[in-house]
Amino acid sequence: MKKTKFALIALCAMGLLATPVAAEQADEASDESIFVFGGPLTAGYFSDAIQPWRWELESNVFVGAGYQRFIYGYQSFQLGLEAGLGLRLGTPSSAEAWAGFVGRLTEIELGDMNIVPSVTFGLSAVTDTIGVETERTAAAGQSAAILYYLAPEIAVSHDDHPQWEAFGRLQHRSGGFGTIANIDGTNALTVGLRYKF
Description:
- Keywords: Signal.
- It comes from Devosia lucknowensis.
- This is Outer membrane protein beta-barrel domain-containing protein.
- Residues 1-23 form the signal peptide.
- By secondary structure, the chain is mainly beta.
- It has a single domain, classed as Porin.
- Helix content is 15%, strand content 56%.
- It has three helices and nine strands.
- It has helices at 2-17, 46-49, 132-140; strands at 32-42, 57-74, 77-89, 94-105, 108-110, 113-126, 146-158, 161-174, 184-196.
- It has an eight-stranded antiparallel β-barrel with strand order 1-2-3-4-6-7-8-9.
- The longest helix has 16 residues, at 2-17.
- The model is unreliable at 1-10 and 12-30 (pLDDT under 50).
């Protein structure tokens, strides 16, 4: 119970951090974006989800939208905040909210194309478990209502339209090797579109 209360407080705090920061903290590298994305959930673990030949897709899918604000930049590195809401549609369906920190590199160019790797780390809260997450929660005898959130991502944009990015992202929830719970929750293989402003 104490871990759950702590996680809820931390999730709320990260959400509040996503509000505009003081002007002196922002620099030329600061920007904001909104994005939508979605894709199927997998029955495997995180290590399986990053290996396409080991994908075992569920019939359940994730769809969501989020907001990012970058507040610090140094050379090609940027650090920011992210918050989002999503639906996990299947058996049973549930809602998800997450908030965390995002770091990205911004200077990988191939001709007119820009490749931007990033990773988001924070907390995720859901209204119910879904698919293999339900089985793992029952086996562990622990709650998966609040878990860590990890989302490695690769985005691609073109110099003619730099405000638009297409991206692939792994939407991962887990107990962080037992620090919250001994559960590898869900992994969704998603693609999306981002608008930067």
